Amino acid sequence: MELKYKILCLLGVSVILIYCLMTFISVSLFPSSFSPVDNWLSDLGNSSYNPNGAIFYNLGCILTGIALFPFFGSMVVWYRENLWHKILALIFNVKFNKLISIYGYIVAFINLLFVFISSIPLLEWFTVFSALAFVGLIVFNTYSNFL
Questions:
Q1: In whole angstroms, what is the distance from residue 1 CA to residue 42 CA?
Q2: Which regions in the chain score pLDDT beneath 50?
Q3: Packing angle between helix 98-117 and helix 121-145, nearest 10 degrees?
Q4: Each residue of 86-127: pLDDT tens digit?
Q5: How far apart are CA 40 and CA 55, in angstroms?
Q6: Long-range contacts of 16-23 (CB under 8 A, 24+ apart)
């Protein structure tokens, strides 16, 4: 496996691990009962609600965001020559699993739909963890194609 593919895989795994680990630590330090049905993710990063765990959640978000920049930058391995193919690289690349691409578009559509229909904490959790699942699927597809 070439270095550029290894970097993409390592960054993707680190994004998922950092966010999940820091979220778990923050939830465990939350002073009262915490539920995705009743609490927003942002409650974890609010020092008024979570005085001991807010720093962990906020740090996790910052580190995840920093790791996402090179992760998406390294997705250039999936690009094609034409501009239109670059825009929709995951659909047009013959080595990329089309079901993963479709998953990404469906999740984006569902999230946009939720914006107009309802606003409850569980939908925020769905959005974040479905995005992390998409990163995981990209890593899996990259690893299985360029092993």
A1: 38
A2: none
A3: 170
A4: 667 667 777 778 888 889 889 889 888 888 887 788 888 988
A5: 16
A6: 16/132, 16/135, 16/136, 18/60, 18/63, 18/64, 18/67, 19/60, 19/61, 19/64, 19/128, 19/132, 20/132, 21/60, 22/56, 22/57, 22/59, 22/60, 22/61, 22/63, 22/64, 23/57, 23/60
Contact 9, 75 (CB under 8 A): no
List the chain domain ranges. 3-145
Amino acid in position 111: N
Q: Are 36 and 96 in contact (CB under 8 A)?
A: no
pTM: 0.83
* Cα 135 from Cα 33, distance rounded (Å): 30
- Per-residue pLDDT, 116: 83
Task: Dig out the tokens for 10 from the structure.
Answer: 């390592």
